[in-house]
Amino acid sequence: MNTKFSHYYFLGIGGIGMSAIARYYNTKGYTVAGYDRVQTKLTDDLAAVGIQITFEESVSTIPKSFLERKTTLVVITPAVPENHKQLVYFRENDFKIIKRSEILGEITRRSKAICIAGTHGKTTTSTMTAHLMYGSHVECSAFLGGISNNYRTNLLLSGQSNYVVVEADEYDRSFHRLTPFMAVITSMDPDHLDIYGSIEAFVESFEYFTSLISPGGALIVNKKIAIQAKLQKAVKHYTYGLDASADFYADNIRSENGKIIFDFVTPTEKIHNVRLGVPVMINVENGVAAMALAWLNGVTKEELLTGMSTFSGIYRRFDLVYQDDKVVFMDDYAHHPNELKASISSIRQLFKGRKITGIFQPHLYTRTRDFAPEFAEALSSLDELILLDIYPARELPIEGVTSEIILKDVTIQNKTLTNKENLLTLLVGKELDVLVTFGAGDIDKLVPEIKKVLKKNR
Predict the structure, then answer these.
(1) Using CA atoms, how far apart are residues 389 and 298, in angstroms rounded to an integer?
(2) Using one digit for the tens of pLDDT, what is the confidence trace for 189-202?
(3) Is residue 92 within a helix (H) or strand (E), and if so which, with residue range?
């Protein structure tokens, strides 16, 4: 712990990663405050534990006790623009400013860090791993990239264990700041090409990440990934997957009365009848990775079986929002073409023979530009598509890049382009069977209103 600073000020405190770190330092007795652009449930939860938050950029809204350069550390995310008034003030007055990834890196250096990386699957796998270890005799702390449905938080703290489970984010090369004891790579589909510039640079970034694993630790890689790991001496290398060619794998996968059950095979033993708490097929592979990490760190067979069956998922990952005898409504964070493809496939397996309508909000102009054909292909596996405008997040518009460049290549006939303002009107009176909202923007804010429309339609 950096004891030089007594005050921690977070710019972008409402982000899923930042909020966990802010809460962590608050629990450790430091004085914590921060800025965010919008009020959300995450900022409300932070305020409820005594953290001061401002939603105005003006320097005058910074609490006075944080204006002392010698005692205040400023933590930022890449999403904060360079001309942000508070950031400009802190820079001009020579405050110590670090990125979120740097402070997380400091935490991992003091711990036995279990780091989960990957373009997709990392949030589910890290939350599963944390649940398995936190509920076992091993225990752990965890900084998660989503809200665990089991614990209603993205931060777990253990006073007993030196293990910490961390989601290793590839955006802005943030995961290069970490010091893993063990690491998993779930997937390596190209993304964030606005940062990396090329697929080759993206792959090299993951390869460099593998070089950071401490001697005595381990790397566990999805069998489907072609990566040239650059491991230090005395770092073990394992694979995981859904067949016997991997070191850790799922065998005898079967579906029984809406439940998914499989046998977990390790290099030395087989654990029979693992039951998934969230019965979607994509979670079998995520579960194998999580169980491999937990097993390597001493979690027992009985603890693994209990942990997997009691795992209740993550907010916005296959969330069942509403269901009656006519309609099912789910919400999912999928925002990359391969995530969408896997998500839609899993939903089809869950609801065989039913009509699936997807509402998709593209996230980022650059991602839409880079992967428009892939998005169109993934969304063409729906029965009906309602496509929203692009959510810009940290970006300015790019000329010629709109949701239209996805829609034109979607091959299904039943497709509609609309905006958020007209979405609810479009849904009123619509015959729906299985409805799913997809995206990483602000589409989740519409979920309660969509639920009301479905109930009214009923």
Answers:
(1) 47
(2) 777 667 777 888 88
(3) helix 85-92
Sheet containing 356-360, strands listed edge to edge, beginning at the edge strand earlier in sequence: 319-323, 328-332, 434-438, 356-360, 384-387, 415-417
Q: At what angle do helices 282-296 and 301-310 cross, to 10 degrees?
A: 150
The β-bridge relationship of strands 141-148 and 112-117 is unpaired
Asked if residue 385 and residue 298 are part of one domain, the reply reads no
Structural domain of 263? 111-310
Q: Within a domain: residue 106?
A: no
Its sign, for the CA torsion 201, 203, 207, 208, is positive
DSSP structure string for 186-249: -------HHHHSSHHHHHHHHHHHHTTSPTT-EEEEETT------PPTT-EEEEEESSTTSSEE
Burial class (CB in 10 A: 0-12, 13-18, 19+), 372: buried
Domain total of the chain:
3
- The CATH number given to whatever domain includes residue 331 is 3.90.190.20
Contacts of 380 (CB under 8 A, 6+ apart): 410, 411, 412
Give the type of residue at 401. Answer: V
- Of 45-49, 393-397, 411-415, the range with the lowest mean pLDDT is 393-397
CATH code: domain of residue 208: 3.40.1190.10
The pLDDT of residue 192 is: 64
Q: Are residues 404 and 364 in the same domain?
A: yes
Domain boundary among 42, 68, 99: 99
Question: Comparing C-alpha atoms, which of 214, 217, 13, 202 is closest to residue 103?
Answer: 13
- The full DSSP string for 316-379 is TBSEEEEE-SS-EEEEE---SHHHHHHHHHHHHHHTTT--EEEEE--B-HHHHHHHHHHHHHHH
188 and 300 housed in the same domain: yes
In a domain, 2, yes or no: no
Per the listing, tokens 């839609």 go with 344
- C-alpha–C-alpha distance, residues 456 and 458, integer Å: 5
- Calculate mean pLDDT across residues 312-329: 88
402 part of a folded domain: yes
Residue 458 has pLDDT above 80, yes or no: no
Amino acid at 50: G
Q: For position 9, what pLDDT does the model report?
A: 98
User: Which CATH number covers residue 59?
Assistant: 3.40.50.720
